[in-house]
Amino acid sequence: MVKMESKFAGKILVLGDCQLSDACIQKICKNNGLKKDVFKFIEYSRVKMFDFESLLDTDRYSDIFVAASPHKAKKIEGSTSVCQFLLDYQERLPRVTQLRLTGGSLGLSKNNLENALISSKLLELRHERTKVEIIFTHHN
After folding, report:
1. What is the CATH number of the domain that holds 45?
2. Mean pLDDT of the 42-70 span
3. Which of 33, 55, 29, 30 is nearest to 42 (CA)?
4. Which of 72, 96, 101, 127 is the most buried (most CB within 10 A)?
5. Domain containing 45: what range?
6. Residue 93 scores a pLDDT above 50
7. 31/68 Cα distance (integer angstroms)
8. Average pLDDT, rounded, for the chain
9. pTM over 0.90, yes/no
10. In which domain of life is the source organism classified (predicted)?
């Protein structure tokens, strides 16, 4: 008998432009045993007003995925850009993953979202917390 326990908390914050369909995102999540609500998307136009300081020392998110987003935003004083803020404060933030397109620019695609999810701290924590117990029974 195999007994599995897989309770975990956390969400993934996705910053920037998302052109993927809802069905595509749901499929990526389903393939990884997750529901779509594991993602919180902050659209490109809303990134400028997002309170980045609220991400410091938080456990609300396991990961931050960064796609194409504005250079400047609210509450990143002392940093020259959103990406620089995330780099400057990486030790006080959830794991940050930059979503890069084939040409190297920031952007969200089906492949890089799926790859980022597979290597996310969220899934890493889920696997660490999964307890497998194998019980052997002896039959005469």
Report:
1. 3.40.50
2. 93
3. 55
4. 96
5. 2-134
6. yes
7. 25
8. 86
9. no
10. Bacteria
